[in-house]
Amino acid sequence: MPPEPGLAGTARLVVTDADTASTLGSGDVPALATPRVVRLCEQASLRALVGSEDEGTTTVGQRVQLDHLAPTPVGETVEAEATLESREGRRLVFRVSVTHDDNLVAAGRVTRVIVNREHFLERLRGESS
């Protein structure tokens, strides 16, 4: 069953020191790092697709557009939600948001592309032109 708009997935994270800007090198503050927010949004988009991919296919990230709007300290929980907004051929566009206690932490879009897994791996190994 191919993915259709409306599919949704979530991912949660309790922020630890390993998730902070100072640890990940994206800043010098002990707050949730933007790269970790991006990863959480991608995890939510992948969870939205569970069970909808055709045999032999997978999706790969193509584009992330994200506004990180509010800081989150260590020890707090954030939740990302991804909803498939549109499908344009092989391109899947997700609307994503991250919240903490009903406050918006980040919002944007994640675009993934459906690929043939084996063909992708061949290209990765340099076996195909």
Tell me about this structure.
With 129 residues, this protein is of the alpha+beta class. It has a single domain, classed as Hotdog Thioesterase (Thiol Ester Dehydrase, Chain A), CATH 3.10.129.10. 22% of the residues lie in helices and 43% in strands. A 5-stranded antiparallel sheet has the order 1-3-4-5-2. Strand 4 and strand 5 form a beta hairpin. The two termini are 30 Å apart. 25% of the residues are buried.
Which quaternary structure do these chains form? single chain
CATH topology: Thiol Ester Dehydrase, Chain A
H/E series: EHHEEEEH
Q: Which percent band covers the strand fraction?
A: 35-45%
CATH homology superfamily: Hotdog Thioesterase
Principal-axes shape call? globular
Average pLDDT level: 95
Look at the helices and sheets and give the structural class. alpha+beta
Largest sheet: 5 strands, antiparallel
Low-confidence stretches: none
Helix content: 10-25%
Radius of gyration: 16 Å
The count of helical stretches stands at 3
**Distance between the terminal alpha carbons, to the nearest Å?**
30 Å
The CATH C-level class name = Alpha Beta
Enumerate the strands of the largest sheet in spatial order, edge to edge or round the barrel.
Answer: 1-3-4-5-2
Give the number of domains: 1
| CATH architecture annotation name | Roll
Count of distinct strands: 5
